[in-house]
Structure formats: C-alpha cells, structure tokens
C-alpha cells in the first residue's frame, strides 16, 4: 500500500444541481446583483488526518464527522475580497443563532440589490430565514 492524500467527497454532492446553481448565479450577475457569500466554519482540537493508505492505483477516500460538535464557530460573509459581518461563537450554530446573525449582523450591512449565497446546511433552509 502507498500513502496518499485523501479526497473528501460530500455524500450529497450532485453535478446536475451544481450546474443549475451556476446558471442561476450567472443570471443574477448579468442582472447586476451583488453576490455575497456567507458561511460558517469552526476550529476544533481534533482534526482529520490528511493522509491515509490505499492500494497502488486506488484513491484514498476518508470519512469525516460533518456534524462537527464541540468547537468554536465563526460565521461571516464575503463580498468580493471583503470579509464582513463576522461573529465568533462558543456554541454550535443552529437556526435560532443563524436567524439572529442574519437579522442583526448580516442584513444591516448589505448593499441593496444583492444575492446571498449559502450552502445546504439544514438551518439555512428554515422557512423563516428564507423569507427574511
């Protein structure tokens, strides 16, 4: 066996949905909307190992706990190369915390006529958040 760098593949990744997303995003850009990307990230004391073992000629596929409990979380937004609306939290982000961040931190700092791009975290899909 040969040590290889792992490739992490999210189990719900879909190339068709990705193409649809890119087409929709390009449509908004063509209409002059500012594109604002937002995401959460975290810091933890225990991280995944970047290398593993696989037979020669085979990829080394690893697994990871995507739920990421017990860590320090950061949430923020990016417009162009400007990072803004940053918050650092000692708790996991849920729909209540995310809604509060959107209402009191992100939305007041946004330019008019913009599109907020976020991933498929369950709390992003909350109807109250989508409506707001």
TrEMBL record:
Residues 35-131 form the Tc1-like transposase DDE domain. This is Transposase. GO terms for molecular function: nucleic acid binding. InterPro entries: RNaseH_sf (IPR036397), Tc1-like_DDE_dom (IPR038717). Pfam families: DDE_3 (PF13358).
């Amino acid at each position: 066996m040969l040590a290889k760098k792992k490739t992490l593949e999210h189990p719900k990744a879909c190339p068709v949905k990705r193409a649809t997303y890119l087409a929709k995003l390009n449509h908004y850009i063509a209409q002059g909307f500012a594109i604002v990307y937002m995401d959460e990230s975290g810091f933890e004391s225990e991280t995944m190992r970047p290398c593993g073992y696989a037979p020669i000629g085979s990829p080394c596929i690893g697994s990871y706990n995507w739920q990421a409990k017990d860590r320090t979380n950061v949430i923020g937004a990016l417009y162009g190369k400007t990072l803004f609306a940053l918050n650092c939290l000692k708790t996991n982000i849920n729909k209540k915390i995310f809604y509060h961040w959107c209402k009191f931190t992100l939305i007041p700092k946004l330019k008019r006529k913009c599109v907020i791009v976020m991933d498929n975290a369950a709390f992003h899909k909350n109807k109250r958040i989508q409506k707001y």
